[in-house]
Structure formats: structure tokens, C-alpha cells
Design a protein that fits this description.
Largest interface: A-B, 38 and 40 residues
Largest sheet of chain B: 5 strands, parallel
Distance between the termini of chain B: 20 Å
Radius of gyration of chain B: 20 Å
Distance between the termini of chain A: 20 Å
Oligomer: heterodimer
CATH topology of the largest domain in chain B: Rossmann fold
Shape of chain B: globular
Strand order of the largest sheet of chain B: 7-6-5-8-9
Helix content of chain B: 25-40%
Chain lengths: ~425, ~325
């Protein structure tokens, strides 16, 4: 019988004072007497954050990250659930590997883990994966993230097939023939540095293709990590037509531009690449007008050795779980682009609805997956203190606002800030059932 | 001459991990001509002219760099640049070792950084590096306690080539760069020679016009500080000089160009086109030349050609750069 009371919080939507009682993984009317208490001191209480686009790197790439370290980082970032991408080694393209990830997550995880299965076997773009069996095993979506399905014909069949299994396909939109040997956004900085560019059109032509395939098949297309003004426009068009198309973007696309590559800083190398200032502004506009359906981090840890290479040779990807909330508050909420409530919605209710995960409302009977946030607290991002194995962030050393004070997943405390006032022994997180 | 290393975002304590850092040992680097000051370029060119005089006098050798060990790390094939650096090192009395792309420990799977750490451990003070990947010199400058001289990094820069081009143009233009205009014709996108030339010339006050097939022009090239001309005729009209760039055969294979013949007919430097420039204008080419493709043989060998002056100037320029890196005084060995 684990129980917990969070006292003196404020409701994330209404701002009203809130005491939340938790018992046995659920929000309850009243906690048992003597339950440990956590003094929120007026901090904001919201449903636990959800990240639909995370690379946990297991199986096979545990030098970069493990399910244990990745979910620990998630908890530190305020997340109570993540969806993990299947571009592991081997690829998550079978029931066995989906079950393996879920069992690792039960044993070592610190948040709920929802695996995403591959669209094609080995992400090779040739043979469909068993979508029905993957769905029954617990896959929440399908994706060939990192290796886009280049054949329109194959994508058509994948969408038709996945639709019956009621799984969305998360589309990494990139025409590989347009990317060529590109390593950063095609523009002045790439020209100055003598690096091959990736034009924005490499993303947008595939977005346009998959919008048409959604229309053709009735399948659910979820557009991954959108980064260009033209892609947002394409998503707007699709929504106007009433198609089952949704889209996500990441904090680095509303925060940085290709200029951040500076003098070959591999920490600013990811795919899609940081785009132009106009694209960054379009990202913010697409968030404001509701074109963007949810936020994700595209958390992509790599080892120091891999990133400590010449720019063209270093792998794409940055970590994001432990900086996501602060970058949202500092660069969207504080400048007035977005209300805190809407920003949190895009990290909580919105992703849950998209992947049909159980809803979390701060009401009795709902899962006790909550995050306590001090939206004003100022702190300095220090990559050496990340729980993730990955230190590859362009935000190291930034002064930001917005801190996760505590994360509670399935009624247990998965992360608690050192400054938090606690009475009694907090229920430790043993296992969160995915 | 150190490149500005200011990061566009706040530099964290203990960073510099991925940054080129001039703080490492206080070493002097030549990573590119972009952001090198006018004074530094003029100083290097003055010194290079002194070395040229010494070399012209015959059988000259200095011992100014006698205590200095230099490594020529050529991860990419090179004849003229590598020979020129090696000869410059010997003329200045430096100890030097060289390796090429074949038969090195890189082919045994060692990382670039480890290979060069090994050399640093052998007390090499200056590393002259050529690599197919842009940014390698900046990367090494941030990681090693050695002076890094860029001998060509991918499609980024080739600053000693840029300096010898400036020296050659200075000779032709009586050292007056203001109001002069150089046309650069050809594969701008993939050319490190073009980037160094544009950076150096604009710093000295000259103008640059580039032209070439649209498939070989990089995005936002104007932002480098040059004009883009629609045709080679437009670029050459009234110019004070022209530089033809080498056309790599692989551009056809990657679908950027239809044929060599079409390129030669549309963009090649022919005697007729050369006459569109000012009467005293000169013709340059970084070599190796594809005669009959980007440059007609009669132009390459014609009276305006400075192609072999360019290679001759490579040696004194590299003497100046090495002396500057080793001592802080480009004229130290003169």
C-alpha cells in the first residue's frame, strides 16, 4: 500500500490551490492516515509529461543509452511516459523485441515505456512487419524513424495495413535523394563551412507525399520532428482537408537556427537539421495556431567519442529529455508565444490522445502520473549532471527557467529535486507498468 | 590570425570540448582566411615576398626553425601542396615528418584524433593537415596542443592557396586591391580554393564575381561577399583577373553536369572570352588543370597566364605561415 500526498500545489489549468492524494498508483479522494507528504509550496501540478519520440538505444546500443538511463533522464525531465523508437540493433520489428523492451522497462525503467514497432522488417523498406501482432504485444505506433520508407508504394501498403491494426505511422520525412551527402541545413552557414547541405525540401516533399497517401489510404500519418515552414504549411493543408494527419516538433527547432553550428559544433548536428531563422519563426507560428499537435524531444543520445569527430563524420542527434520543459518555458512561454497551460497540454494531454494512451486528469480514479513544476526557478543546464548517458546537447551552459521539482509515476516518486520539502519516506519507484 | 571562437550561445565553464580553442597552449593556427585580419594577411604577404627574394638568390636556407618539429599529415592525396610544405620546412631548417593517406594507422581503424595525439606526443609543434572532411583543422585546434595549419579541408578552405593567389594577384595589381575585381569560374560549391580566395580578396578590398552552372553554386553564395554573374561573359567583362576552378569528373557521375564538352563550351576560358577582361588582367588556375575543359591550352600557356607563378609563390607563402606559427613573426627566418 504505497501512498502519498502532494500538499499546497496549484492546478496547472486553473491555478487553484490543490492537494493531491495518491494511493496504489491512483489519484484518490483521501490518502490513508500517515501517508508521506510533499510540500509543493505553490508549485504547479500537471499530468506527467509524455514524449512520443525517444531513442532509448536498447537493444544493441547501450554505450549510447540504456532503458534504465534513458527513463531515469525522462523522470528527471518530468516525463512519466515515453514512446521509444525502433531503430535499435536489432530493429524492433518482431513481437519478441517489443516484449523484450517492455520487460526491460518493467525491470529497470523509471517511467512508462511504450515501444514503437518498425514499419518494415529491419527498417529496410521491403517487407511489412506484423502490425497486428506488434499492436497486441504493446506497440503504440509504427515507424521507420531514421530510415524513411522511400518507396511510395510500400508506404501506401504500410498505411493501409497499419490502419486496420489501429496504429499510426510516425513518418520520418526525408527524401534521401535530396539529402544526398548533406550534414546540415542548406544555407549560408553550410556554404561558409564548406559542408554539404540538406534542403528544407527534402523534408517537405515527403510530407506532401505522405499527406496524399493518408488521403488515399485512410491511414493515420503522424509527421515526426517537423522543421520547415513549408512542412507546417503542408500539415495545415492536410488538416483543412480533414485528413488523419498530425505533426510534432522539438524544442531545438523553436530555439536554434543553423547558425548554431558555429564552427563545426557537432552538438548542433541533428536530423532534420537546425533550419533558417524563418523556419524557426514558422515553427513558433505553427505551434501558436494549433498546426502542431504535440511536442517531442527526439532524444538521441550518442557517446562522446562519436560526437568528438569531424562534423561530417559525427552522428546526427541531440539529447532532450532533461532540457525539454525548461526550453519550453524559457523560449515559448516567457516571450509570450504560448500560455503555460497550452504549452503543458502539448507535452501531456495532446500526446496521450494522439497515441491513445490512458488519459491523466488530476481527479480521483486517474493514474497518479503527475509532475510538479516551478515555472520560475532559474537554473543552468549542465550536461555533466544529466542522468542520460548522452551529453550531446547544444544547450549546455544555458541559463533557463522552469524546473521539475518532482515526478510521480504510477504513484511512486521517480524524481525529486533536492530542495523539495518532504515529510515521511516517499514511496520509491519500484516498477511502473507500461 | 586566430579564428574568433565566440560561440553563438553562452560558453559554459569547462566547454571547449567541441570548440576550436585558441586557449589550448596559446598556439597560433591558420585554419582559414575567413576572419583573418587585413593586417595579418598583409604581414604574411610582406614576409612571403622577403622569402621569395631569398629563394631567388639561390641556395638559401635559414635555421630559424631548427628546434621546431613539423608533421605534414596528409589524409588526402596531394603533390604540389605537400611538396611545397616539405620544401618550406627544410628551407627554414625545421625537423619534419610526413605521411600520406595510404599505409597509415588510420587504415588500421585508429581515429583521426588518436593518430594526431600520437604525433603530438612525439613533440610535434606544428601539424600541417589535409583532410577530406571540412572543419578538421578547427576540430584539431580545439583538441591538440599544437599549431594547426590547414592544407585543405574538404570543401571548406585552403588558406595557403588563398595566400599564394593573393600574392600572385598583388604582383599583377601592383599591390593595389581596392577597386579590383576577380572572376571565379566553375565549381564554386565544392571548392575550398574559391572560399579562401573570396575571404582573402574581400578582406583586402577587392571584389569577387563568381559564376558557374547552377548545380555547382552553393546556397546563399552571395552572403560570402561576392556577386553572382549569370554567364561567364558577364563575369569576365571588365574584370582584373579570372580564376578557373578544376572540374572534377565525379560531378558528371553524381548528375550535376551533363558532359565535359557542354561545360567547356559554356564555361571554359577561351581566348575570345579572356579578351572581355581588362587588357592587363591575368588568368589563374589552382591546378591540376584539365586542359580543354575549364581552360583552353592557349589560355593556360598564354601571356596572361600566371598559373606557374602561383605554384612558385606557394613556397615563400608557406615559409611565412610556418615562421608565423612557430614564432609569431612571419619574417622570423628572412
Amino acid at each position: 500500500m504505497s501512498a502519498l500526498v502532494i500538499r499546497g500545489a496549484r492546478h496547472w489549468r486553473t491555478g487553484a490551490p490543490l492537494d493531491l492524494a495518491i494511493a496504489d498508483g491512483l489519484i484518490v479522494d483521501r490518502a490513508p492516515d500517515g501517508a508521506p507528504e510533499l510540500d509543493a509550496k505553490g508549485a504547479i501540478l500537471a499530468p506527467g509529461l509524455v514524449d512520443l519520440h525517444v531513442h532509448l538505444r536498447e537493444p544493441g546500443q547501450s554505450a549510447k543509452e540504456t532503458i534504465a538511463t534513458g527513463t531515469r533522464a525522462a523522470a528527471a525531465g518530468g516525463f512519466t511516459a515515453v514512446a521509444c523508437m525502433p531503430n535499435t540493433d536489432p530493429v524492433l520489428d518482431s513481437v519478441a523485441w517489443i516484449e523484450w523492451v517492455l520487460s526491460r522497462a518493467r525491470a529497470a525503467g523509471r517511467c512508462r515505456v511504450h515501444p514503437i514497432g518498425a514499419v518494415t522488417l529491419g527498417q529496410k523498406g521491403e517487407t511489412l512487419t506484423p502490425a497486428h501482432a506488434l499492436a497486441r504485444a504493446g506497440a503504440v505506433a509504427l515507424s521507420d524513424d531514421g530510415r524513411p520508407v522511400m518507396s511510395a508504394g510500400m508506404m501506401r501498403h504500410a498505411l493501409e495495413y497499419a490502419a486496420q491494426a489501429e496504429l499510426p505511422i510516425v513518418c520520418h520525412e526525408e527524401d534521401l535523394t535530396l539529402r544526398g551527402e548533406g550534414v546540415m541545413h542548406e544555407g549560408f552557414t553550410a556554404t561558409r563551412l564548406g559542408l554539404r547541405g540538406i534542403p528544407g525540401a527534402a523534408e517537405t516533399v515527403m510530407v506532401r507525399r505522405d499527406v496524399e497517401l493518408a488521403a488515399l489510404t485512410g491511414g493515420r500519418v503522424h509527421l515526426a520532428h517537423l522543421s520547415t515552414a513549408e512542412s507546417f504549411e503542408a500539415l495545415r493543408d492536410a488538416k483543412r482537408r480533414g485528413l488523419a494527419v498530425s505533426g510534432e516538433t522539438c524544442p531545438h527547432y523553436w530555439t536554434l537556427t543553423d547558425e548554431s553550428v558555429g564552427d563545426y559544433d557537432t552538438r548542433a548536428k541533428m536530423n532534420p537539421p537546425l533550419r533558417s531563422a524563418a523556419d524557426r519563426d514558422a515553427t513558433i507560428a505553427a505551434i501558436q495556431d494549433g498546426t502542431i499537435d504535440c511536442f517531442v524531444t527526439d532524444h538521441a543520445p550518442h557517446t562522446e567519442e562519436e560526437k568528438r569527430q569531424p562534423f561530417a563524420e559525427a552522428p546526427f542527434g541531440i539529447v532532450g529529455l532533461e532540457t525539454a520543459l525548461a526550453l519550453t518555458i524559457t523560449f515559448l512561454v516567457e516571450p509570450g508565444h504560448l500560455s503555460l497551460e497550452r504549452a503543458l497540454e502539448l507535452w501531456t494531454d495532446a500526446p496521450r490522445a494522439l497515441f491513445r494512451l490512458p488519459a491523466v486528469r488530476l481527479e480521483p480514479g486517474h493514474p497518479a502520473d503527475v509532475t510538479l513544476i516551478d515555472a520560475d526557478a532559474e537554473w543552468t543546464i549542465d550536461a555533466t549532471r544529466f542522468h542520460s548517458k548522452g551529453r550531446n546537447t547544444p544547450f549546455d551552459g544555458w541559463r533557463v527557467h522552469g524546473k521539475v521539482l518532482a515526478t510521480v509515476c504510477a504513484g511512486a516518486v521517480t524524481h525529486a529535486d533536492a530542495a523539495l520539502a518532504v515529510r515521511g519516506a516517499l514511496p520509491e519507484f519500484a516498477e511502473a507498468r507500461a | 590570425m586566430e579564428r574568433a571562437t565566440a560561440s553563438p550561445y553562452p560558453a559554459p565553464a569547462g566547454a571547449g570540448f567541441f570548440y576550436p580553442s585558441t586557449a589550448v597552449g596559446g598556439r597560433r593556427h591558420l585554419l582559414g582566411l575567413e576572419r583573418v585580419s587585413r593586417e595579418a594577411i598583409v604581414d604574411l604577404l610582406d614576409a612571403a615576398r622577403l622569402y621569395r627574394e631569398r629563394l631567388a638568390a639561390g641556395r638559401w636556407r635559414s635555421d630559424a626553425l631548427a628546434q621546431v618539429a613539423v608533421c605534414n599529415a596528409f589524409f588526402e592525396d596531394s603533390t604540389r601542396t605537400r611538396c611545397s610544405f616539405e620544401l618550406a620546412e627544410q628551407r627554414l631548417g625545421a625537423m619534419h615528418v610526413s605521411f600520406g593517406p595510404a599505409g597509415t594507422s588510420v587504415s588500421k581503424g585508429e581515429t583521426l584524433l588518436d593518430t594526431l595525439r600520437v604525433l603530438q606526443s612525439m613533440r610535434v609543434e606544428i601539424i600541417v593537415v589535409r583532410h577530406r572532411s571540412a572543419g578538421v583543422p578547427a576540430f584539431l585546434a580545439g583538441q591538440l596542443d599544437a599549431s594547426i595549419v590547414n592544407a585543405g579541408d574538404g570543401e571548406h578552405e585552403h588558406p595557403t592557396q588563398g595566400l599564394l593567389d593573393l600574392m600572385t594577384l598583388g604582383d599583377a595589381w601592383q599591390e593595389r586591391f581596392d577597386g579590383r575585381r576577380l572572376a571565379i569560374v566553375g565549381d564554386i560549391a565544392h571548392s575550398r580554393v574559391a572560399r579562401s580566395a573570396i575571404a582573402g580578396l574581400t578582406t583586402l578590398g577587392a571584389e569577387v564575381t563568381v559564376c558557374g552552372p547552377a548545380t555547382l553554386l552553393p546556397a546563399d553564395v552571395e552572403a560570402l561577399g561576392c556577386e553572382v554573374a549569370p554567364t561567364v561573359e558577364d563575369a569576365l567583362s571588365g574584370a582584373d583577373g579570372v580564376m578557373a576552378l578544376r572540374l572534377q569528373k565525379e560531378r558528371m557521375e553524381s548528375g550535376l553536369l551533363p558532359s565535359l564538352g557542354e561545360y567547356a563550351a559554356t564555361w571554359g576560358l577561351t581566348p575570345e572570352r579572356i579578351r572581355l577582361m581588362k587588357p592587363e588582367a591575368v588568368v589563374m588556375h589552382p591546378g591540376p588543370m584539365n586542359r580543354g575543359v575549364e581552360i583552353a591550352p592557349e589560355v593556360a600557356d598564354g601571356a596572361r597566364s600566371r598559373v606557374f607563378d602561383q605554384t612558385a609563390n606557394g613556397l615563400p607563402v608557406r615559409c611565412a605561415v610556418l615562421a608565423w606559427c612557430a614564432t609569431g613573426d612571419a619574417k622570423a627566418a628572412a
